[in-house]
Amino acid sequence: MSTYDIAIRGGQVATSFGVTRCDIGIKDGRIAAIAESITDAAQVIDAGGLLVLPGGVDSHCHIEETSRGGYTMSDGEPQITVNEESFVTASTSAFAGGTTSVVCFIPQWKGFGVWERYVDARKRGETGMLDFAFHQIISDPTDVVMKQEVPKLVAEGVRSLKVFLTYEPLHLGDAEYIKVLLAAREHGCLVTVHCENFDAIGWRTRALLDAGMTAPKYHAWSRPRVVEREATHRAIALAELVDQPIQVFHVSCEDAAEEIARAQARGVKVWGETCPQYVTLTAADMDRAGFEGAKFMCSPAPRDTAEHARIWEMIRRGTLDIVSSDHCGFSYEGDKGKGSAGRDASFEKIPNGIPGLAARLPIIFSEGVSKGRISIEKFVELTSTNPARLMGLYPKKGAIQPGADADLVLWDPAKKVTITNALMQHAIDYTPYEGLEVTGWPISTIRRGEVVMRDGKVQAEPGTGRFLPRGPYDMVKPRGITPDGFGA
Ligand code: URP
Ligand code: ZN
Ligand code: ZN
């Protein structure tokens, strides 16, 4: 009998600490050994000429989320709708792009609790092939939810809450946001925040619609940088007051990132995430002919190429230390064009969000490493190690070391590929990155010691994805009210 189930031989193993030529021995789904030469294995995978990376960890994905409302059924009850991307199709897409774990979302329907939604989301997650954890969206922070249900979720290993400072009907006002921060602090959760000013966007949107400016491109006009900067500042200031760690989601511009940098310099516990769309797409994409602009519509809105360079600078400085996809399953022929008033819909009726689960690693490698903007180590940190660390999944995920799950990607750093929707292998009928040329591509994806993708062919059994319960955050607890807020 062989010592190892699999030996990966001859690759350049890349972690956030460095790139080294060595072999990896896998046993029972875990990394069992890392050595100069490992031969005693039942199966040998040749990684010569390839990088061996830890599997991608995407800590911001919208998969199979349910919503209540929109359409009314014949008995008068609002219809329950499900996001077009299921856990099965999302798993295929993730493996195709080198991602092996995700943190996705449990919805909260306004007027309802969260426990039932967790039970439902957990069952849905277990139908897929990806390993998954959850953030709990809080859109209605009642006492029952925050004092009774959130502690139950924490006990299950759901240790982060997502709040929206904009979006009807999800957004929270400042008083509700503070309530969430306080509950998170008490129960040991991270709070993740969508930072845009709801009232400012509402005012801009009404003014644009009144002037007949309804096309997709006006989405960007309705939410300029300043609404993101203001909400980012406010989200951080209130978190600082309560002394509660937060992560600012999908930072699109330097203005908002500078707010994070200033707070980090003061020692505030704030992290910044950005996404591939903010280094590749621009507001001009939403001005494509006809209704095509809807394909690029997400919030915050993509900016311009000068902003891309500033986002890279913020990544290099470490202000933005995680790159997630913010993958959203709205097809062009489906929810984007038909969900409300169809192709004649004004921009505020088009669902926000774009698909990017499979494209995330290739885009960040190509735009980052291949174009000389970041090192391979930084790439691993941004796309795998840092999200695993912040989400409490490290070193089970995001690491190549003995004892870690054998989630690995064999990566060809020189392979040139033109992105097409077929390569994304998702359920969505388009990719906003169609035609983008990238250098660097995943050749094989291994999840817990099983080869789940080779040369673009995904082979994994639905129902094999595992829920990832997350351990407690090490947080300072309140010692009482001080003149400046909570704190020691
Ligand atoms: O436009 C976006 N980002 N849609 C997805 C939901 C969210 O805001 O994260
Ligand atoms: Zn958001
Ligand atoms: Zn999102």
Automatic annotation (TrEMBL):
Keywords on record: Hydrolase, Metal-binding, Phosphoprotein
Family that this chain belongs to: Belongs to the metallo-dependent hydrolases superfamily. Hydantoinase/dihydropyrimidinase family.
GO function term, MF aspect, one: metal ion binding
Entry's Gene Ontology cellular component terms: cytosol
InterPro entries, per the entry: Amidohydro-rel (IPR006680), Hydantoinase/dihydroPyrase (IPR011778), Metal-dep_hydrolase_composite (IPR011059), Metal_Hydrolase (IPR032466), Metallo-dep_Hydrolases_sf (IPR050378)
Function: Catalyzes the stereospecific hydrolysis of the cyclic amide bond of D-hydantoin derivatives.
Domain Amidohydrolase-related: 51-452
Annotated organism of origin: Falsiroseomonas stagni DSM 19981
Post-translational modification: Carbamylation allows a single lysine to coordinate two divalent metal cations.
Residues with N6-carboxylysine modification: K162
Pfam families xrefs: Amidohydro_1 (PF01979)
Protein name: D-hydantoinase
Cofactor: Zn(2+)
Entry-linked CDD domains: D-HYD
Keyword check for Phosphoprotein: yes
